[in-house]
Every structure is written in structure tokens, then in C-alpha cells.
TrEMBL record:
The lineage of its organism: Eukaryota, Metazoa, Ecdysozoa, Arthropoda, Chelicerata. Residues 451-474 are annotated as: Disordered. WD repeats lie at residues 204-245. The keyword Secreted does not apply. GO terms for molecular function: GTPase activator activity; myosin II binding; syntaxin binding. Residues 40-149 form the Lethal giant larvae homologue domain. Belongs to the WD repeat L(2)GL family. This is Lethal(2) giant larvae-like protein. GO terms for cellular component: cortical actin cytoskeleton; plasma membrane. Residues 454-467 have a biased composition (Basic residues). GO terms for biological process: cortical actin cytoskeleton organization; establishment of spindle orientation; exocytosis; Golgi to plasma membrane transport; regulation of establishment or maintenance of cell polarity; regulation of Notch signaling pathway.
Length: 528
């Protein structure tokens, strides 16, 4: 069945795509066609339908772009857009380059963009970029550079590339701090993204005050988001119309969650350019886009952020009790993380943590480019999620609160100043996951056994009554039983055992009274 067709630029030929994953080139001048150019690109096994196709021939070669067509058995669940480029007009596999753009959300549509320069010939317009619209994001591929990198989006950036777990709004950020963030983001973009001019020139983009247009008197507002995959992203919220992506911090680089992912993060241009494409893989997939709803480890999720807009210092708190201080550094460096353990509950308190463990720390040196770099590392024990955090650059301390207590930490000297547990002795067993919420007079095992015995007796008596109703011959047996019942029972009757449950005097709020939800630093002035 026919799915879609596309005319070539010469107006004489067109290409059609079908529901079996094949496409065919036709000539409008021929009355009868033999289908000799039929091609199943990712065959010979059954393939999914090609939903849309584009065909263009110019002096730069031939481009065939289509959505779908993957082998049904192996990659039927993937959302892809394939780009096939033949340098010469002859359809030769030796001169062919093929890349399959792999998306994490459903592809809605794609649109090629041609160069619109004045000196370009209308009959030989060059293919400049490819715009792909997915359900969760929009991706623009630069087809003029040989490695086909992505463009950095000036608008419509994917805010929820990973689920947002925490956010902080920072108004009136100092201009020098804002400039450092922008410069760090630009340095990151030069490696990851295309350096060409944004190909879409329609509409009027709002001026966010970046680059050469930064005004010293302009107010800069930031939105900082923490995500489930351990990333922290900076957004320019100075305008009322849109958010502009600025910069990303990857905290997962510090941990041994997945070595392959750490390699990709350290070489962040791997998934955005084609220099490292594995030509031996077929189909040649390349991961594109920013949307990735899956996380390798839920312990990486960011729970708290504390950013000082005056000094440019950022404190990050995670789900597994990790706290990291990031500061600006204009030079690239290598860092070996050394986490300082702070035990809020001592071992002598007979507390046994039954939750998740700490994240394994990487022992090797980790490369960090210019920008935010980690300077202090803290691991809270028990490794529960950080529920409150505040930083004071004046005192150079950070306060951290969890469900078990709080601590005051000096991040310049790497010293713990105050450690206080808020757990009551009566709540220790419940906090570690023990069964102390209900006080019972009998053990649970014995009570459960007696409950099953009572249930069995009630069922047996009910079955006897049903048998007697259906069988009249049982009347004599019933009369004999009645005579026996009139005889005084020498055995003391068994009283039903009831499980007494004491009324709880503690509410859920009392059980969670140890959790720290808010910490704040108060200043004072000493008068002599």
C-alpha cells in the first residue's frame, strides 16, 4: 500500500514509499513502469511502514530522507528518521552515507530546509538542515557540516529532558555570574552543537541578553532545575515569553553507575555529531535529542538545590544522601572525588538502615571543563534523601537536613561543625523499617494461626448445615447429637481468642517528627 510520495526537484521524477518498508523511484514521462528501482533498504526481513519520504538531487548529491522502515522483529519499537546521501548521482553503495536518527519519543513530522542565499541558483538550491518534530521535543540537524551535528535550540528547548525533581528561581543574578554561566554554556555548545547560523529565520526571537547584547544594567533571572538523572540545568528566564537553555552540570560523572554513560558524558559530542559513528553497526543508529525519561539509578535524582547568586556557588543534594558543592573555575582540571562521611545516627544507637545504599564513587580522576567544578563532597549516613539544605557564603557553611537529623558543614575546610540526630529512641525501629507501629499482646504468628483455625471451624459448621438440609437421612444423626449436647460437657469450652490492639496515641506526624523540612541561617551582630 502507498504511504507517501515526494517529487524530485527536476519535476520529472518522484519517489513513493510503502507499508512494507520499501520505496520506489518513478518517472512521470513513462506511461508504464516496471518497478525496477524497488528497494527495501533495511531488508531482506519484514520491515515497518515508511510513513513519509523526501527526495532531492542537486550538485551536492542525492538525499533520500524517510521516517520508519526499520526491521520489524529487531527494531520495530524504535522511532527513527533515516538520512541517505549519495555523493554522486549514480546509486552506488560505495559513495553512500547512511545515518539513522534515533529518537526517544514518537516522530510526528520532518521538514527539510534549503539555503536561502541571494547568490544561490533557484534550480540548484542546497539542502541546509533537517527539522524533526517529535512528541516531546524538536530537533534540527545541520546537513552542511560533514558530521551532521545538531543545532542548539534558541527556543523550544526540552525543559523536561529528564523528569524534574526540584527547581529554584534566582532573580536579579549579578551580571558577572550570569556572564560566566553563558560563557560556560557557549564553550559546551561549540563542542556539542553546530557552529553554523540558526537556519530558521521566520518570526522575531526575543532578546534574552546573551552574547554581545548583554547590558550591564539589565536584570538577569535564572531558573535552575534538578533532574532525575542527576543533571542540573540553567535556564534564562529574563523574558516573559520563553526559557533559553544555558548550561548543564552532570553529577553522575562522580559515580560508578554506568561506565558507558560516563564515557558519553565526558565526550559529550559523541551523541550529537557523526565523527564517532560506528560504521560496522547496521542500521547505523545515532542517538539525537535531549529527551530521555529513563534513569539508570533513582539514587542520582536531585532533591535539593541551593545557589548563591552573589558568589556563584551551588550546593546540590541527592536522593542517596550525597551533597556536592560546585564553584566556578575558568580552567579545565581533573578531580578525584573524596567524599566525607557524616553519620547522623551513631552505631551505638542500635539503628540498622534497611533502605538503599550509597552511590559508588569513581576512584579515577574525572575531567571537568571550564565552568562549574566540584570542590566539596559529603555523604550522609544513613543515606536517606536530603530534605532541606541552605548555603551561607558569608560563613562558608552549608546546612543539610534529612529524615533523621541535620548537620552544619564547613565547605572550605571540609569540616563537620554540628551533627544532631532528631530521632527519638521510640521511633528508631520505625525509622529503620521495623514493625513497631502497632503494639500487640500476642505475637503475629500465633494470632494468625488462631485466626485460620476459627475460619476453618466456621466453614466446617456451614458445610454440615448444608448437608443436613439436602439429606433427610441425617435427621437421626442430628437427634443423637442433640442428646449429646444436653449432656454436661466435662471439658472446659474453648473461648475464642481475640487479638487486642492498643489504641495508638502517636499520629503520623509524631512518627515523622524527626524529618527536617526547612533549615535557615540567622545572622547576628555582636556589640562590644
Amino acid at each position: 500500500h502507498l504511504e507517501h510520495l515526494s517529487w524530485n526537484q527536476n519535476g520529472n521524477d518522484f519517489i513513493s514509499c510503502h507499508n512494507d518498508g520499501s520505496y520506489n523511484i518513478w518517472s512521470a514521462k513513462q506511461e508504464h513502469h516496471d518497478c525496477k528501482n524497488f528497494k527495501l533498504h533495511y531488508g531482506p526481513f519484514p520491515c515497518k511502514a515508511i510513513k513519509k519520504i523526501f527526495w532531492n538531487s542537486s550538485s551536492c548529491g542525492e538525499y533520500i530522507i524517510f521516517n520508519g522502515g526499520m526491521p520489524r522483529a529487531s527494531y520495530g519499537d524504535k522511532e527513527t528518521v533515516s538520512i541517505i546521501h549519495n555523493v554522486q548521482k549514480e546509486n552506488s553503495s560505495a559513495n553512500e552515507r547512511n545515518v539513522v536518527l534515533d529518537f526517544t519519543s514518537k516522530v510526528v513530522d520532518f521538514l527539510p530546509i534549503f539555503s536561502a542565499k541571494e547568490n544561490d541558483d533557484d534550480d540548484d538550491m542546497k539542502l541546509q538542515a533537517l527539522v524533526v518534530l517529535a512528541v516531546e521535543e524538536i530537533v534540527v540537524i545541520d546537513l552542511q557540516q560533514p558530521d551532521w551535528p545538531q543545532f542548539k535550540l534558541p527556543y523550544l528547548a526540552c525543559l523536561h529532558s529528564s523528569p524534574i525533581t526540584y527547581s529554584q528561581y534566582c532573580p536579579d543574578v549579578k551580571t558577572d555570574i550570569y556572564n560566566r554561566i553563558v560563557e560556560s554554556g557557549d564553550a559546551e555548545s561549540n563542542v556539542k552543537y553546530s557552529t553554523n547560523i540558526w537556519p530558521i529565520d521566520g518570526g522575531v526571537a526575543a532578546n534574552t541578553g546573551t552574547g554581545s547584547s548583554i547590558n550591564e544594567n539589565q536584570h538577569h533571572h535564572l531558573l535552575i532545575t534538578g533532574h532525575e538523572d542527576g543533571t542540573v540545568r540553567f535556564w534564562d528566564s529574563s523574558t516573559k515569553s520563553s526559557l533559553k537553555y544555558l548550561y548543564t552540570i552532570h553529577t553522575s560523572k562522580l559515580f560508578n553507575v554506568n561506565e558507558d554513560d560516563n564515557i558519553l558524558i565526558e565526550n559529550e559530542d559523541h551523541d550529537l555529531s557523526g565523527e564517532d559513528d560506528d560504521q560496522s553497526e547496521w542500521p547505523p543508529f545515532r542517538k539525537v535529542g535531549q529527551f530521555d525519561p529513563y534513569s539508570d539509578d533513582p539514587r542520582l535524582a536531585i532533591r535539593k538545590l541551593a545557589f548563591c547568586s552573589e558568589q556563584g556557588i551551588l550546593a546540590i543534594g541527592g536522593t542517596a544522601g550525597q551533597m556536592i558543592i560546585f564553584e566556578f573555575n575558568e580552567k579545565a582540571t581533573e578531580i578525584s572525588p573524596n567524599f566525607i562521611e557524616i553519620r547522623i545516627i551513631e552505631e551505638k544507637d542500635s539503628f540498622v538502615w534497611k533502605g538503599h545504599g550509597c552511590l559508588p564513587v569513581r576512584k579515577s580522576n574525572i575531567k571537568f571543563s571550564s565552568g562549574f567544578q566540584p570542590t566539596s563532597f559529603v555523604q550522609i549516613h544513613p543515606p536517606a534523601a536530603i530534605t532541606a539544605m541552605v548555603i551561607s557564603t558569608c560563613w562558608q557553611v552549608v546546612s543539610i537536613g534529612t529524615a533523621h537529623g541535620f548537620t552544619l558543614f564547613d565547605y572550605t575546610k571540609n569540616l563537620r561543625l554540628i551533627v544532631k540526630s532528631t530521632l527519638k529512641p521510640s521511633n528508631i525501629s520505625s525509622a529503620m523499617g521495623g514493625d513497631a507501629l502497632i503494639s500487640r499482646r500476642k505475637s503475629f504468628k500465633k494470632s494468625l494461626r488462631e485466626s485460620f483455625r476459627r475460619l476453618r471451624r466456621s466453614r466446617s459448621q456451614k458445610s454440615k448445615r448444608n448437608i443436613q438440609k439436602n439429606n433427610p437421612s441425617m435427621t437421626k444423626i442430628q437427634e443423637a447429637n442433640n442428646r449429646l449436647n444436653r449432656i454436661p460437657d466435662l471439658i472446659e469450652p474453648i473461648k475464642p481468642v481475640e487479638r487486642a490492639i492498643e489504641v495508638m496515641t502517636k499520629s503520623n506526624e509524631d512518627m515523622m517528627s524527626s524529618m527536617i523540612n526547612l533549615v535557615h541561617h540567622f545572622g547576628w551582630v555582636q556589640i562590644r
